[in-house]
Amino acid sequence: MGVSRATDIVLVTGVSGFVGSAVARALGARGATVRGLVRSTSPRANLADFPGTLVEGDARDPASMARAMAGVRHLYHVAADYRIWAPDTEEIVRNNLAGAQTVMVTARDAGVERVVYTSSVATLKPLDGSAADETRAATPEKAVGAYKRSKVVAERLVEAMVAQGLPAVIVNPSTPIGPHDVKPTPTGRIIVEAARGKMPAFVDSGLNLVHVDDVALGHLAAMERGRIGERYILGGEDVTLGAMLAEIAAQVRRKPPTIVIPRKLLFPLAHANEALARITGKEPFLTVDSLRMAAHRMFYTSAKAEAELGYRARPWQEAIADALAWFGAQGMLA
Question: Of 23, 51, 188, 220, whose CA is between 20 and 30 Å from 235?
Fold first, then answer.
């Protein structure tokens, strides 16, 4: 988006989170006047060196969004309920749909000049054995699990509002990894557990790994060069889960896992994990939906973003290294 004038305010939602904080840092490095929306209950670990002004509010609340949007020229709506599991799974759908609707309506009414909406490759149907592109739009009925369904319905809402004049570009990150994954994300948890030697076996699956900072730069490129109403996959490289675990093991000097477990054998354990989570309140590491997702190799191509936005991603091994370095510095690998 280039260097902003002093009066150009850029609002970023979800700035305490993994991708949102990376977008805010990238904007700060470009000299933008950044305003970050953060909930009062959100962790502050990613906000210690926030490059701008923070305002408290909730993306689902019209009044707080109206206050946050005052004087804003550009908007990055990154905030999302990124959980694969919840005691009430429909809560994930309600949160992400309500957040998208409130933020987009407020942006339209405030006359925001340009919007980048952070969706996910969860809204796209994978092609087993080959890389899917932006044309593979999923339907809510075919989406696996509440999180994917929530992102599909929210993306369809944004598309409908674009048809009514909302100046929004949609970006679809694949699987970001790297520093500042404070929660951590489901993939971050895999990296931590594997580095600690806690994953002696795995299922035969695959995913597209990308450095979170490359995803952030892809957001800025979409703001500057993206076509209104288009979606752009912001991915990296397709990697099997076995190759990912072997790379983690090599970087931490552990023996890589070699046992491949059939998915069907893990479903009883996933059900047990979810039952325990309902008692403890802690998100389970293995869930029924994650096993259902693992049935597919979730491979994607970023060719469209590369051609139209000038998007580039570094090797996935570097993203693993940066993630491990950050997790280690936080004492999470001990």
Answer: 51
